Amino acid sequence: MHVHLHPGSCTPSICLACPLSSAPILVDLNTGSSTVLPVSVTDAGTVAVLHQRNKFSDGSPPFTPTVATFNKDGHLLHIRNSKGGILVVDSQTVKVLAVVPVSGGSVIKSIAFSRNGQNLLTNSNDRIIRVYDNLLLQKDASTNLDAISGRMNELHGIEKLKTVGSKFLQLFHEFSGAVTKIHWKATFVSVVMASGLLVLLPAKGSIRYTHGTGLGI
To answer: Which residues cross the membrane (predicted)?
Structure first.
């Protein structure tokens, strides 16, 4: 099980738990109450139930830890869905605000934000690390996302959710281990200067690849 504390408080009382073979859960450490988070949406844009025996879109069984993380201020949750994409969920209302499709539809193994919150990285079963630019304002991100959605009243359902997602998370770069058949075990992100992003890609127990994407490396 993977666990994340809410990053928006010095003494966080909300915990994000990602258990094996079930949806991620928000846990209130003060009251002990818990909320199951959505992992899939229908074409109509409503939350869909993912049965544990279902396989992911690339045929992988769901017997792996679920993947989810907070954004920098904790207002948004980014959750892997069953179709190789990312659901963006309001951490207070648990409402799905956007869907970000990932090319290829491969199962996402991990999601990470850079320390400044301006980049999001995904590590997928297709051995590709994808770096996205996060165009949302860092303060009150959920409010900003609602404003984007409110300007698209002509769209509905999953089409609207995907369009909203494309407005604030845009693919910036891809690092591929497909040729050498390397399975990245995790992704670590560190901002090295205002325009630079350092991506560390550990494989087989040691860090073997380092890329400074903002530095042209």
So the answer is: none
